């Protein structure tokens, strides 16, 4: 690895982003070595460990001024001191990728870069970070005032959240709509199969009920709406009627819902799978 040859001598102006004010995430797993400022640089990450938010920004402060660098990444931590004559420690190995956006530390000695978690490089391809992955990052940068001409930031590891347990209509939602309820009649006591109250009927089997509720038009009491819009609980009439209805009263009429409205919300947010 020869950093002097690897780094082209031009800057990408858009790569120097303001430090995000959002939550700090990640853990330093490799301390790094002092650079020509006399101290090791300071690595941090901010944003969210929820992959679906695609919100992670890496920042490194305390770099020598006006030096180019590239973020490198892998899913394997190692410790390799002075790779290729560099002054620093390489802390990641295995299938190692370079994020090709060149950063420059400018007059302040800071860099930051917003990542795209749908396209993180490994040694031969881009991959989408998956829930449950732990990904390691480091900045590899020039340090023209030091004898080895390059150094590395500390390494940071980001453990992304595991996938939430999946919620399905058949096993979670349908039973809530049909179970006995000591506080009120069951939903399908009033909204029976075919033509229940308002034309809203809950069929006697989950598959038919699913087809009549998900992406299906409402009946005649709260007309011209959709019972469940996958991904959009706020505009789904079924969820509105269980929480804060704009049309008519909260359901079940005359009592308290025996299910969990948060589970209904999360199921709709997850795309309302059967
Ligand atoms: C005691 C009878 C009764 C029970 C039990 C009941 N509902 Fe209703 N439901 C009604 C009545 C009456 C209306 C029309 C008045 C209103 O909207 O407040 C209605 C309207 C609705 C509508 C609007 C339908 C449309 O297409 O216009 C939905 C959706 C709904 N209920 C869902 C439910 C759910 C879900 C449950 C169970 C948690 C439930 N209801 C339990 C009586 C009931």
In short:
By secondary structure, the chain is an alpha+beta fold. The protein has two domains: 3-159, no CATH class; 169-269, no CATH class.
Brief descriptors of the model:
single chain; 274 residues; alpha+beta; 2 domains; six-stranded antiparallel β-sheet; four-stranded antiparallel β-sheet; 6 helices; 15% helix; 25% strand; rod-shaped; binds heme C
Total beta strands: 14
Structural class: alpha+beta
Low-confidence stretches: 1-20
If you average the pLDDT, what whole number results?
Answer: 91
Separation, N- and C-terminal Cα atoms: 51 Å
* Count of distinct structural domains: 2
Largest sheet: 6 strands, antiparallel
Map the helices and strands.
Elements: H1 3-6, E1 24-25, E2 27-30, E3 42-47, E4 56-61, E5 68-74, E6 76-81, E7 89-93, E8 97-104, E9 111-114, E10 120-121, E11 126-127, E12 134-142, E13 150-152, E14 155-159, H2 169-178, H3 187-190, H4 206-213, H5 237-242, H6 261-269
Antiparallel strand pairs: 1-3, 2-14, 3-4, 4-9, 5-8, 5-12, 6-7, 10-11, 12-13, 12-14
This protein binds heme C (HEC).
Heme C binds next to helix 3 and helix 5.
